[in-house]
């Protein structure tokens, strides 16, 4: 039997889509993935999700989302999707050795942190290498830390880490930051933050835990070791969209494209779209949005995707 709608992914976008689709009696099937809950599962305190005066823990927030959608009839499968066939409805979704079919699909597979890909990095993840200051910062009390990157995320991570660290050194590959003015000003004003310009981390040194980073200065090509207890990588994100390659249109970076230029009846008065180039397939959250990347914006897009899917199903008489 074909489902009315399958939602792939279970971060704020997927679970909000599930809530709206469930309340519209579409009995959505959510394929959660083995890392259910998305990036908020590796976040501690969330202070900017509206409705929580005192903040909320990321995993608690996602559990609340999940239960709320379940209350209205959302169903969950804890497997990863291995393959999709989106040429025409009913769409086929393969997960956990099972084939599922659906008249509409909402893709909300999120994004993951990009890594440097240098020697020692993979081996020392969780042993001093981290992509999440809010998750791991408190483990580095009184230590010297390095943050790699020059964007807003890197500044945010560095500023947060000054709560715990003795000193935070930002290593950036150019001599100017990409971060917004306000974040740059905050970082420059913090006397616990130092900058190493025109440099890249070439190796993470350490056996059981991070002991140093080997830096290469890109101007004079000199190598130097900096003793640190931890390295936080903040060089951007990669959308989890490889499953959809050659089936859905993406940017060169792999973010799914929606709306303008892809759908015949695009409405400039309603520019925020979740429709992809395949009729009946919608996309929402960080797999689409490389700019805002907030739980609340992802949730908002999930709501839009469910409404768009519902309207589309209705127009097709389902
Ligand atoms: P981003 O703006 O793309 O910045 C990535 C940074 O990493 C850049 O400085 C880039 O260097 C550097 N980088 C990329 N690949 C690298 C590599 N292989 N080795 C070394 N350095 C590398 O990403 P983001 O900081 O994650 O921000 C993404 C979006 O979220 C932005 O729109 C940002 O404004 C937003 N955001 C906002 C806030 C806030 O306002 N509080 C917080 C976080 C994120 P180059 O500069 O040389 O390219």
**Content-based structural category:** alpha/beta
- The helix content, as a percent range, equals 10-25%
**How many beta-strand runs?**
19
Count helical runs.
Answer: 6
The percent range for strand residues is 25-35%
What's the oligomerization state?
A: single chain
The radius of gyration computed from the alpha-carbon positions, rounded to a whole number of angstroms, is: 21 Å
Taking the sheet with the most strands, its summary is: 7 strands, mixed
Bound molecules: NADP nicotinamide-adenine-dinucleotide phosphate
Q: How does the overall form come out from the CA principal axes?
A: elongated
CATH class of the largest domain: Alpha Beta
| Element-level helix/strand string | EHEEEHEEEEEEHEHEHEEEEEEEH
CATH superfamily of the largest domain: FAD/NAD(P)-binding domain
Mean pLDDT: 94
Supply the number of structural domains.
2
End-to-end separation: 13 Å
The poorly predicted ranges are none
CATH topology of the largest domain: FAD/NAD(P)-binding domain
């Amino acid at each position: 039997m074909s489902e009315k709608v399958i939602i792939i992914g279970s971060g704020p976008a997927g679970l909000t889509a599930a809530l709206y689709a469930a309340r519209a009696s579409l009995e959505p099937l959510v394929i959660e993935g083995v890392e259910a809950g998305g990036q908020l599962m590796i976040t501690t305190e969330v202070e900017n999700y509206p409705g929580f005066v005192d903040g909320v823990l990321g995993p608690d927030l996602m559990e609340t989302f999940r239960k709320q959608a379940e209350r209205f009839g959302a169903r969950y499968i804890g497997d990863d999707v291995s393959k999709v066939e989106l040429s025409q409805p009913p769409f086929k979704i393969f997960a956990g050795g099972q084939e599922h079919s659906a008249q509409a699909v909402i893709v909300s597979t999120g994004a993951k942190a990009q890594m440097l890909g240098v020697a020692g990095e993979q081996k020392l993840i969780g042993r001093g290498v981290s992509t999440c200051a809010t998750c791991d910062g408190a483990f580095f009390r009184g230590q010297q830390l390095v943050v790699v990157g020059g964007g807003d995320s890197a500044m945010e991570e560095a500023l947060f880490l000054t709560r715990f660290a003795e000193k935070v050194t930002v290593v950036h590959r150019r001599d100017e930051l990409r971060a917004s003015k306000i974040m740059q000003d905050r970082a420059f004003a913090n006397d616990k933050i130092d900058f190493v310009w025109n440099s890249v981390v070439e190796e993470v040194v350490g056996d059981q835990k991070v002991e140093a980073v080997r830096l290469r200065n890109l101007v004079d090509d000199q190598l130097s070791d900096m003793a640190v207890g931890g390295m936080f990588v903040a060089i951007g994100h990669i959308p989890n969209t490889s499953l959809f390659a050659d089936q859905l249109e993406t940017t060169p970076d792999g973010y799914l494209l929606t709306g303008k230029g892809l759908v015949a009846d695009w409405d400039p008065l309603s520019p925020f779209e979740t429709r992809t180039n395949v009729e009946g397939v919608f996309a929402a959250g960080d797999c689409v949005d490389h700019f805002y990347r907030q739980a609340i914006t992802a949730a908002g897009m999930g709501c839009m995707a469910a409404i768009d899917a519902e309207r589309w199903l209705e127009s097709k008489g389902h």
